[in-house]
Amino acid sequence: MKMKGSEAIVASLEAEGCDVAFGFPGGVMIPLYDALMDARKLRHILVRHEQGAVHAADGYARATGKVGVCMATSGPGATNLVTGIANAYLDSVPIVALTGQVRGDLIGTDAFQEADTTGITLPIVKHSYLVTDPADIPQVIHEAFHIAGTGRPGPVLIDLPVNISLAEMNYREPTGFDLPGYKPTVEGHTKQIRAAARALVDAERPVLYAGGGVISAGASPELLELAEMLQAPVTCTLMGLGGFPGTHQLFLGMLGMHGSVASNYAIHECDLLVAVGARFDDRVTGKLSAFAPHAEVIHIDVDPAEIGKNVRPFIPIVGDAQHVLARIVDEVKALGPEPGRTADWVARTEQRKEEFPFHYDEEMQEGELAPQYVIEQIDEVTGGDCIVCTDVGQNQMWATQYFKYRFPRQFISSGGLGTMGFGLPSAIGAKIGRPDKTVVDITGDGGFQMTMQEMTTAICADAPIVVAMLNNGYLGMVRQWQDLFWEKRYSATCITAQPDFAKLADAFGAVGMKVTERDEVADALREAIACGRPALIDFRVRQEENVFPMVPSGQSLDEMIGGHAPKKRRAKAAGGTPAAGKTATPAGRSTKPAAAPPGNEAAAPPGKKAGAKGGAS
Amino acid sequence: MKHILSVLVENKPGVLTRIAGLFARRGFNIDSLAVGESEKPGLSRMTITIDGAEHPIDQVTKQLHKLINVIKIRDLDPDLTISAELMLVKVRAEGDKRSEALQIAEIFRAKIVDVDRNTLTLRVVGTTEKSEALLELLQPLGIVEIVRTGPIAIARGRP
């Protein structure tokens, strides 16, 4: 069928089942935007900055499991996508980014709004195309969706010179893929699967360590079945939250730098660690040489390059998490796990959970909310049935600790790249993908200001999201590091010079609220959810609250600070009540670093450690 | 240990950049890289040499495999591999030096491909070690310029 290149792009996107694209036009994108006006199935959401488009596509993809699509013009439009593309790359999120490019004959001449988009994005894409023949459009888009969404998902970029969009071409439906170099391994190796099942049945202290791969593969039912059958405790990475029900008795919480005491000790003491769709990131492992020191490791991942990259596994299995876990379940069933084999181990982890829960000072002064309380109330008010998007920093860590994620694709957060400003646009994308769900963006006053122009997008796109801002007037996580490791020298982290966010929300046409008192929190949340419009609640929280427990960067997971519960909580817990001020170390273990008490009076920072300096988020 | 990787890639724009970029950002140092068309239409073959002691070779190959345009990688066994590089070297050859240069060229079966009053240009084909040995002998004469392709390699016998 004869049509223009731009029409072929729209037709090809629709043929891939793409029903929404987030974008912002520009000179070389006029032909494509013209064709979008006549699109029947494809809805375009106009953002207010291209970074918003790519994060929205990312949030849409994570919430729905489909490929997210964003588009931007050449030059500055494309470079504004870069952060979001890197974000999707590090978190393995399937997105297709369409960028305009200057006319083919102008490429390389430093033309107006020209940037080498494929060059700039080369290290942060799964694959990219520069289209040079309009006849290639259907095939390129077909391949791009396939590459983005299969294997280890990731971003694919298509750079479209404007002459390609303008050219007349003959649209022919793609008939398959011509990708001889792309064959993701889905099925795991049978011998390895058998060996893994045998090791699992033999283990006395197993831990299942689930990452984002469990969610992207849709392997949650298999993970649950395996955990229950073996009575093996489960811990999740930031990316894996929701992959296993947070309300389940076998769930230990998140692991790593701000993970639960129960998770981190379970890792430290287990005899078998099964990593599923996880990549042993430094925020998870702490000091790598001291990670899971007593465990044999089984590593299941669809990306062979992840296996052996940081940790050398005892049994490596390359394959899709869902396929591999389903087969391990079958093998374990056939072997027949010995009932009660892990009972002591589970009891020990249970005791840890009771003894060292996440905790905070529940006595709130007037006008000083505990940020953790706000998160608990979001869980309470929504009954845990909402999608939570987060920004990056303290708000994100509290969101992992105080909300129980119950189902996959419920928790959407920037993990690998740690992109501040991700929360709001990703929440808009999630809401557009899942209009049936309440979507709450848990953000901070710092991150919100990085992409707050997207409030307009939420209004125009009729995406009634709830922005729950934990406003502490600081870039909180960096301030926390300065507090603990830099002698409280708060360089450039105090941001109390800020707009009145409730009024700002109002000015955007959203509902704005300010909450300072404990007993107003739940009502404000209810009102925001019920109002049917985008809403922002400015929660005034304690300014110098820290996230605990914490494993200082570069230290071993058993060297947590601030993990112990205050006395009154512990009194409720079963078992002994160790003296206040001790670290969260199991009985008999040496207490290496000094314990920082919970809350803001971090009395005994462990001192400046060489490894503790870089990269707070 | 030096590893010789024979990498079959799609002959598409940007492939070389993708591979070079991957090596750069993962911190792998390439000792040499030679590329040309292969026996299959649309496919090129690269010969990449890399120091295996410096970088875990399986990470290198796994990361390379993730590139969509990379079709096949072989880590060639040096004992079962024929490798050769082409080198052009221009040396000073005035007066007595000229006959010495000619003798050395003869021993190494290097061809004299250019001559003028002051210099000789030699062309030699062989292993990297042979090129190195030749250069060592030519050094005292005064080397003006060296150009090397880096080795290309092929496995012996059947694949």
Short note summarizing the structure:
The complex is a heterodimer of chains A (617) and B (159). Chain A is an alpha/beta fold. Helix content of chain A is 36%, strand content 15%.
Please explain how this structure is put together.
- With 617 residues, chain A is of the alpha/beta class.
- Chain A folds into 3 domains: 2-170, Rossmann fold; 190-355, TPP-binding domain (Rossmann fold, 3-Layer(aba) Sandwich); 371-540, Thiamin diphosphate (ThDP)-binding fold, Pyr/PP domains (Rossmann fold, 3-Layer(aba) Sandwich).
- Helices cover 36% and strands 15% of the residues of chain A.
- A 6-stranded parallel beta sheet of chain A has the order 3-2-4-5-7-6, with helices on both faces. Chain A has a 6-stranded parallel beta sheet with strand order 11-10-9-12-13-14, with helices on both faces.
- In chain A, strand 4 (68-72), helix 4 and strand 5 (95-101) form a beta-alpha-beta unit.
- In chain A, helix 1 packs across helix 2 and helix 10 (220-230) packs parallel to helix 13 (321-335).
- Chain B is of the alpha+beta class and 159 residues long.
- Chain B folds into 2 domains: 2-76, Alpha-Beta Plaits (2-Layer Sandwich); 82-155, ACT-like. Chain A, domain 2 (Alpha-Beta Plaits), CATH 3.30.70.1150.
- In chain B, strands 5, 6, 7, 8 and 9 form a 5-stranded antiparallel beta sheet that branches. A 4-stranded antiparallel beta sheet of chain B has the order 2-3-1-4, covered by helices on one side.
- In chain B, strand 2 (30-37) and strand 3 (43-51) form a beta hairpin.
- The longest helix of chain B is centred in the middle third of the chain and has 12 residues, at 96-107.
- Chain B is elongated.
- The mean pLDDT of chain B is 92.
- Classes of the chains: A alpha/beta (617), B alpha+beta (159).
- At the A-B interface, strand 6 of A face helix 1 and helix 2 of B.
